[in-house]
Hints:
By secondary structure, the chain is mainly beta.
Amino acid sequence: MLCSRSLLARLAAVALLAAAGLPAQTVRDGDLVLASNGSTRGALYVDPASSVLRTLDATRSYAGLHMSWGNDAAWVLSGSRVLFVNPAGKVTTVVNFVTGSLGAIAADQDARFWITNQSTGHVYRLFGSTATTIATLPSPSAICRDGDTGHFVVGSTQGALYRVNRETYAVTTLAQGLGSISGVAYVPSAGGRFVVSRLASGGAVAIVDRTGAVSATANLADANCVTFDERRNRIFAGGTGASAGNVFELTVQGAVVRTLSVGAGVSISGIDVWGDRDVSLTGTGVQGSRATAYLAFPDSPNRAYCVALSLANRPAIRVAGQHQHIAPDAVFFLTACGGLPLWTTGFTGTLDSGGIANARFVLPYVPGLRLYVGASAVNPGKPGGLDVGNTEVVLVQ
């Protein structure tokens, strides 16, 4: 499941970000980042607690977006270009596909990105500034990574969800007849399901289980994109058209909790959570090999951290209202207190001045086994005193 060249991808991304220059961060951990192609265009962000809208960049209209590993930039799409916007709003072009209209972007576990081109039907895997076509599908409009398996799920405006294997690129159909899909996100809670936004029949947000069946639907006019906030354990959907300027907050069961109004001119084409990419993985994924968890907690420099493994990502651990989607099973307790000699290294320690650290572990000789990796850092300024990271998964080969 892990890519042996992913370190090169990470170094390429770091080099791009360094070249852009990163001044003091203004957007905060937990803010919702929005891509807008409306009259209020650009890369925007909003604090869900206040609904106050602020601007990262307003120089162009954007389609999809996704947070980078390390939470130091939002990777965005504009026409045929992939760009990133740093916290001060500086925009850097990563690659220009020249033709087609890019529609959605999702981060892989190893600091690479997968991108859809709705015009050409291509799904790309981006390595640095080099893109490889790995699948061709009917009007691919949305994409997310399946946190249960590490593979990808692609949505189509023709109403289908497809699974794409990240190693073999094999494509299978997950669901059909969902209407014109505009967004998709993975939800680890309640069985590892997917949330889909669709524009058909007036608009809706639907919960789709792992068999492709729809378990719940919230009728939301012109719902255009979705994301899942791991720590809040909430779904957020952005609106366009009749719902332009609206961000809908939903439970993992698909019930609408509230609507945030951020301005009628904001036609939301992409949405993500700033600060939700603290953990990523590299390695070959082969049994007996060593995997590395790269930690990036920019809000917690020089703080103590802890890494843990688990055989599942649910039920989640709850800390002062935050959710960490890693199950407290026997493997968790064996590894959470400093790891195990000869199997793990660096599972506890102190983050450097940039909030960075590495932890390594040997993959057991059990092909097909899934190991989930989570991490947190001590930070008195966070709820419960913990800076809670995301959860990644490796499938042993």
